[in-house]
Amino acid sequence: MSSAVLSTSAAQGRFFVFDAEALEVWPDEVCPDREASQTRLTAKALAGPASRQVSSEDLSQRKERWLGMTTPASRLAVRPAPEMVSSGIAEIDALAGGLPRGCLTEIFGPASSGRTTLLLAALTAATRRGEVCAVVDASDAFDPLSAVAAGIDLDRLLWVRCREELPQSHPSASLKACTEKKKSDKQTFKFEQSESRSAEYRLEQLLRATDLLLESGGFGLIALDLSDLPPQAARRIPLTTWFRFRRAVEPTPTVLLAFERQSIAGSCSSLLIKLGSTKLGAAGNRTKEMKAAQVPELAHARLLTTLEITAEMVRSRLERKPAGSVSATFASKTAWAG
Question: Domains in the chain: how many in total?
Answer without folding.
Answer: 2
